[in-house]
Amino acid sequence: MFKVTHAMVLALAVVMTASCGPAAAQNDATTAIPAALKASADAWNAADLAGHIRDYADSATFMGGNGPIQGRDRVGAALAKSFWRDGKPKQQLSFDRIEVRPLGDRHALVTGHFLLTGGGEADKSGWFSLTYEKTTSGWLILHDHSS
Question: What is the pLDDT, as a whole number, of residue 16?
Answer without folding.
Answer: 40
